[in-house]
Amino acid sequence: MVVGELTEEVDVLIIGAGPGGYVAAIRAAQFGKQVTLIDKAEIGGVCLNRGCIPSKALISAAHHYETAHESAFPGIETTAKLNFAEVQTWKQGVVNKMTGGVKTLLKGNKITVVQGEVFFVKPDEARVMTEVEGHNYHFEECIIATGSRPIELKSIPFSKRVLSSTEALSLTEVPESLIVIGGGYIGIELGQMYAKLGTKVTIIEGTDSILPTFESQLSRLVLRNLKKYNVDIVTQAMAQSVQETEKDITLSYTVSGEEKTATAQYVLVTVGRQPNTDELGLETIGIQMAEKGLIAVDAQCKTNIDHIYAIGDIVPGPALAHKASYEGKVAAEVIAGKNSVVDYRCIPAVVFSDPEIAVVGLFEEEAKQVYQEISVGRFPYAANGRATALNADQGYVKLIADKQSGLLVGAQVIGHEASNLIAELGLAIEMSATLEDVALTIHAHPTLGEMVMEASEVALGVPIHVLAK
């Protein structure tokens, strides 16, 4: 229904078509709502177009190249030639397939999709500027899902040779050398990927270790593999400035007060992401903000304006695509009259490094702060038949439980297929499973999943395939 000349009435206006926004749109439409979904760029957002999907495609290609170039499997000798332009074409095909699938789903759910930039003019009205015109939308409910963008360092602005993750995923040639500022999960994933493809990589990290938000034991195996690819890692280092030429770029940084330099073909800045909340006109309608440009929300993803919701990278919590999708479902269900609330007890996090890292629930030190006594079970990949047969015996599965009740409260996996193994453990925590529940679940043999069962038996003090301590 059109109200006035250029104002359209909609049930639900969703701003941002990433994994939070498009999922919220589909769920709201499933409940019979008339939904308009708006994004200033592409369907699928950063995740499908410039983040999760293209990065994992290139990481997969790097793994295959490493295996084909210099097989670590006994008795198999290989040689390989890398055509990176063709790899990039394949990667874009993966992106197109995924975004095309989302477009089909949106169309099938009768969701109106508009490309344009949005800013609020009233608490129940937003103006959308397309390439050809401006259009106002009067909404009953609104979900803001505008995501985030890479943080740009003031002293080292993005340029031809200073890249964000977006540009690093779109290089047409494998760089001879690369300096990565930031040893978090994005820097490690992309740095290790390019190292496998033959790039000389240097990682500059401000804290005393890479992957500083994870347990040090988890990062240790990744660190060992990075050194295998001759990656230089400089910790407790602060980037200061760069000098750029037509052919290369030199980074100045300090370590313990001493100034040093490093030169490479490119510098990649991966020091975090900032929420896209600064150009929406939120101050115009009085949206309450939290720290660092985030929007304050309650357990139903509602802002201080009752009919406006916010989800994903623009609200407090980890900036993860699956968290955004989860919150999008919750917000859409609340709009539909359901009594849904968010429950962040077990949000999994994965680093697609080599070996992979996957965690869910509490770390060991966190669990010690919550429970009087804990039980910990750790089972090595090296004692698992399937891992050994795959020649992938680095890593372990670690379970953490409240000793009194036996409830599983945390889990970490580092090793081959950790990203897939973590799902079972997330389900176990979500369903309040005990160590005994996990131990009594029959797991197929020989599989990597058996390590979950074995780790629970270690925690219970009755291991079979390792000696009890």
What does this structure look like?
The chain is built from 14 helices and 23 strands. Strand 10, helix 6 and strand 11 form a beta-alpha-beta unit. Helices cover 32% and strands 26% of the residues. The model has no long low-confidence stretch (mean pLDDT 95). Helix 3 runs antiparallel to helix 4. It has 3 domains: 210 residues, FAD/NAD(P)-binding domain, CATH 3.50.50.60; 110 residues, FAD/NAD(P)-binding domain (3-Layer(bba) Sandwich), CATH 3.50.50.60; 106 residues, 2-Layer Sandwich (Enolase-like, domain 1). Strands 1, 2, 3, 4, 5, 6, 7 and 18 form an 8-stranded mixed beta sheet that branches. The protein is globular. The protein is an alpha/beta fold.
What features would you highlight for this structure?
32% helix; alpha/beta; single chain; FAD/NAD(P)-binding domain; 5-stranded parallel β-sheet; 469 residues
Q: Which class do the helix and strand fractions yield?
A: alpha/beta
CATH superfamily of the largest domain: FAD/NAD(P)-binding domain
- Could you tell me the mean pLDDT? 95
Task: Give the low-confidence spans.
Answer: none
Largest sheet: 8 strands, mixed
- Separation of termini? 71 Å
Q: Mind telling me the C-alpha Rg?
A: 24 Å
Helix content: 25-40%
Number of helices: 14
* DSSP, total strands: 23
CATH architecture of the largest domain: 3-Layer(bba) Sandwich
CATH class of the largest domain: Alpha Beta
